Amino acid sequence: MRKRKIFASIFVILLTPLVLYYFYPEQKLPAEIQIDKLVVYKSKRQLLAYANGRLVKTYKISLGGQPMGDKEFEGDKKTPEGLYFINDKNPNSGYHKNLGVSYPNEEDVAYARQHNKSPGGEIKIHGLRNHTGLIGKFHRWFDWTLGCMAVTNEEIDELYSAVKVGTEIDIRP
Predict the structure, then answer these.
(1) pLDDT tens digits for range 56-78
(2) DSSP string, 34-83
(3) I need a surface site. Which of 78, 81, 114, 162 has the fewest CB within 10 A?
(4) 124-126, strands of its sheet edge to edge
């Protein structure tokens, strides 16, 4: 009986920080704000949102399964680096919602062609795969995408509303 109580106590002690992490409220993007620039720091797993030159929110992100280095070819699981633009908004994505990134650009295509490979494409900022939203913030503990930048569903809802097609996104190492 004593061992069960000890086990139960240890379980509660270990579970409590996880529950607190999951449910702890995070800063919301101010209402009616228009994001005019996004900056990604891959090494920090951060996406910074700017409005009128002022940082308004920092998002924690997950990246491609091979996050180090610039995306070179289709299937390398790397997130591209460089200056791109938001070129699409999809409210019916397989990953809740998404914002399209203008990868590949002319340089990306030329590099891949030099190596007789495809540069790939379909790089997005997206939420969690449909029907897995309960994972919530725990997705941040792993780099799990195929080269995209992932945020929670609540965060992509914010970004989807505040970011227009044509917004600059600067992806840095």
Answers:
(1) 999 999 999 888 899 999 999 99
(2) -EEEEEEEGGGTEEEEEETTEEEEEEE-B-BSS-SS---STTS-PPP-EE
(3) 114
(4) 54-60, 46-51, 35-41, 163-172, 82-93, 96-101, 124-126, 149-150
Domains: count for the chain: 1
Residue pLDDT, tens place only, 88-128 = 999 999 999 999 999 999 999 999 999 999 999 899 999 99
Q: Would strands 96-101 and 46-51 be described as parallel, antiparallel, or unpaired?
A: unpaired
Whole-angstrom distance, CA of residue 98 vs CA of residue 83: 18
Q: Nearest 5 degrees, angle CA 148-CA 150-CA 156?
A: 120
What phi and psi, each to the nearest 5 degrees, are found at residue 82? 135, -170
CA–CA separation, 64 and 123 (whole Å): 10
- Give the CATH number for residue 40: 2.40.440.10
Q: Which domain holds residue 61?
A: 2-172
Other CB atoms within 10 A of residue 74 CB? 15
Does this model's pTM top 0.70? My answer is yes
